[in-house]
């Protein structure tokens, strides 16, 4: 029986001997005598800011921290509301809660995954301070629409780009905005060897506040200007990320070829909805997510056929115990998020996948979904 694992970091590192480059970079970092806030981090921040077509990058300990610190740097705190997608990873909501503010969910567009920008206005109150558009699965949100909305209401925009390294919106790189938070968890398109994150910004004053927040509120030494935290991207992670950043565009191009092959092969398969790409977007394909009505049964049969899949995400955030007491959706007001939680299925999309592996997945799906005679 053929086996197609969902994602394997080791196979990614085996492409073009990237593992050898990473080994050399890690050895360089560990022998340098710098372990935090050193030259590898400085170099990575400059290189990633340039890659994102932006001016500043501030490395953090993880993606959740990047979101939280970006909100704090914008002054978000207790008593504030922040608009968030109802369909997203829980980290988007947790970052808001960590500041003392309240996440207010907004549904995705009908038959889509991303924040419905036309619904934002109905969620605004006098307490609303910011909005977090999430570039979910690697597809950018319509930032022009979000920007117009935010400008009308005087709101900060903090982008959650944890899954969108290298994506583009109307020709502009995701990451070219005012406050864009990234995660470098190992499974991301640009992944570290452990946890890591960053905020990219075009605002030097915001970058300075972020650097204070991440380092105990101090720029250096014991000169504590605020009540900060400890959230720093370490030298080893920065060194590994510098290597992988050089390969990111090629890896994303390979992901795009895998996605295109899936879309073409699944176009005529009944019972499955493949993802759309807006004409103005360049998808990073962090995940290739389809929608299937009988998702759990289909996933089980794919597993039996040797095809490993994932669900991103099986429980809508407002239905988790972490947020159940908030009462969101108690009156059935978030049906799109709940429907997606029941239908989404992520197929393997690693840049190392061969055509034969992709064909194995699509043939297995076709066999599972074929109408019985």
What does this structure look like?
- This protein is α/β, with parallel strands linked by helices and 373 residues long.
- The protein is 38% helix and 13% strand.
- The strands form 4 sheets. It has a 4-stranded mixed beta sheet, sandwiched between helices. Strands 3-2-4-5 form a 4-stranded parallel beta sheet, sandwiched between helices.
- The model has no long low-confidence stretch (mean pLDDT 96).
Short description:
With 373 residues, the chain is α/β, with parallel strands linked by helices. 38% of the residues lie in helices and 13% in strands.
Keywords:
373 residues; alpha/beta; 13 helices; 14 strands
User: What is the helix/strand order?
Assistant: HHHEHEHEHEHEEEEEEHHHEEEHHEH
Mean model confidence by pLDDT: 96
Q: What spatial form do the alpha-carbon principal axes imply?
A: globular
Strand content: 5-15%
Give the helix proportion (percent range). 25-40%
Low-confidence stretches: none
* Strand element count: 14
Oligomer: single chain
Radius of gyration over alpha carbons? 21 Å
Strand order of the largest sheet: 1-10-9-6
Span between N and C termini?
25 Å
Structural class: alpha/beta
Largest β-sheet summary? 4 strands, mixed
Count of helical regions = 13
